[in-house]
Amino acid sequence: MVLDSNGFKDLLERLTYLRDAQQQQQAIISMTRQAKAQAEAAAKRLAILESNDKEITIATTQRVLALASMNSLLHSKEAALQYARAAQQDALAASRARGSALRAEIAQVQAEQAAAARAAAQQAAAAAAGSGATPTAVGPAPSGGWTIPQQVVQCESGGQNLTPNGAGASGYYQFMPGTWNNYGGYGQAYQAPKSLQDQRAQQLWNGGAGASNWVCAGIVGAQ
Question: What pTM was computed for the model?
Answer without folding.
Answer: 0.39
